[in-house]
Amino acid sequence: MKLAVSGKGGVGKTTLSAMLAGALALKGQGVVAIDADPDANLASALGMPDGEPITPLVKMRDLIRERTGSQEDYGGFFKLNPRVDDIPQKYARRIGNIHLLVLGGISKGGEGCLCPAAALLKALLIHLVLGRDDALIMDMEAGIEHLGRATAQSMDAMIVVVDASPWSRQTARRVRELAGDLGLKKVLAVANRVDHAADLKKIADELGDIPLIGHLPTDDRLVAGIARAAPDGRMEASAALTGNLRAVEEILSAVKTRT
């Protein structure tokens, strides 16, 4: 299963990404979790120690230069198809069956577009989507700048997280439009922190032709993360994950049904 998770900031997309990854890992599935949001918080949501900072791949200048052959951050000659197959094993942070990779934001400002970095990320995502059997959960920002056409068309679905605010549904419609431009036709919605059937019906009506496939209730336990690493490296599910596991599994089942 290859899923991208998007949505307006603050709606809980990182929480849902972590719970999807955790639920799959509990089933024994190998999972690659990708943090593609410049405001990277997926490591914390997965319960990885805050005292161990993770360097985003776009900041690994030596790696980028080694793999692309570029001597500059912008311009010059560089490989468009660098070797990336060993990156998940060498550079991922692990918790149980989950391999976490933090991509980082591709700058469009004063540092230039970092085209060699973009080439490395593009090749990596194509490899993860098309070249590996692991499940892939990709936590994105509201935009979809990391997804190229080849990766988008090969993803099983884009899940857009919404909440009670009307702005989250506006973002969902914008994400659906962007995803459609890249050929990703399956855009599905999950409501977060919604507890009443009447609110869910209103959200579903306002989403129009974006199917609402599930919801998560308000749960203050999620602030502490969905898991933690045991001393032997295994993933231990938190009460927040086990308490909401049925809802997450229903979301995964709905995705399979629609894809």
What does this structure look like?
The chain has 10 helices and 10 strands. Mean pLDDT is 89; it is low at 108-112. The radius of gyration is 18 Å and the shape is globular. With 259 residues, the chain is α/β, with parallel strands linked by helices. Helix 1 packs across helix 10 (245-258) and helix 3 crosses helix 5.
Summarize this structure as a short list of keywords or feature phrases:
single chain, 259 residues, alpha/beta, eight-stranded mixed beta sheet, two-stranded antiparallel ribbon, 10 strands, globular
Mean pLDDT: 89
Distance between the termini: 10 Å
Q: Which residues form runs of ≥5 with pLDDT under 50?
A: 108-112
Strand content bin? 15-25%
Order of helices and strands: EHEHHHEEHEHEHEHEEEHH
Shape: globular
Number of strands: 10
Helix content range? 25-40%
Helix/sheet category: alpha/beta
Oligomer: single chain
Largest sheet: 8 strands, mixed
Q: Strand sequence of the main sheet, in spatial order? A: 3-4-2-5-1-6-7-8
Annotation field: number of helices: 10
